[in-house]
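Protein Record: Sequence and Backbone Structure Tokens
======================================================
Tokens: labelled as protein backbone structure tokens, with as many entries as the chain has residues.
Question of interest: how does this chain fold, as expressed in backbone structure tokens?

___
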Amino acid sequence: MGDEAIVGAGESGGVAGGSGGVTDGSGGVTDEGGGVTDERGGVTDERFPRHVAERLAALPGVRAVALGGSRAQGTHTARSDWDFAVYYRGSFDPDELRAVGWPGQVSELGGWGGGVFNGGAWLTVEGRAIDVHYRDLEVVEHELAEARAGRFRWEPLMFHLAGIPSYLVVAELAVNKVLSGDLPRPDYPSALRERAPALWRDRAALTLGYAKANFAPHGKATEVAGALATAAMCTAHAVLAGRGEWVTNEKTLLARAGLRTVDDVVAELRPDPRVLVSAFEEAERLFASV
């Protein structure tokens, strides 16, 4: 990766912030890194990411830790969970994470289906729900090079209707907030912007075509609804790729792509072949308009 090779926390000085503390004059305690503990001695939201990152960065093999999701992008609410990515090189043993003692579920490597999204954990820390995602640096560096060449592959992933592109881990580099170690922050590759939209639109068209021919004539409304939702997500990926906008999940994908009105199409479905065929035609017009 040349000058963008990813280095470790130890090489970059680790997590910012000290552990000494002084009172902040308001009943809390401010540490040397600027974090504040509340009156009950708990860790505040300001300090919480560093608190978690310090523990994660100390795990064997971990070279960097990043905050992701809505917390990194400033779109969170008070009820939002906290997403952390641990970037390791060589090997990572989930038992080391279990040994930290945070309650919750810790998967094995590959436990979430394999591929670039190769496992993680759902944990509770200081009363907060956190997700920890495993990221193999060799895989991340490979996918960064592939994305710059305009290449990617599709992978299935739980909770994602359209699956994910392998460049998702590159998108994370671009939008996440590094808490420990050093990670590159890539721009959207022009080659990916040129090639990805057509591939996503092809997936959408194939999904619609199959369902229109095999489900709609038989009044299978549930299958049609699933196909419309999947095709809408694929089309949204195409739209955002064409704009050069990174995508890390599907939560706001339809709205960002201007496709939220597909809800109106789905809402009208019923097990009537004529209605279902008409829904496909309406969806095709909508997808072609963006």
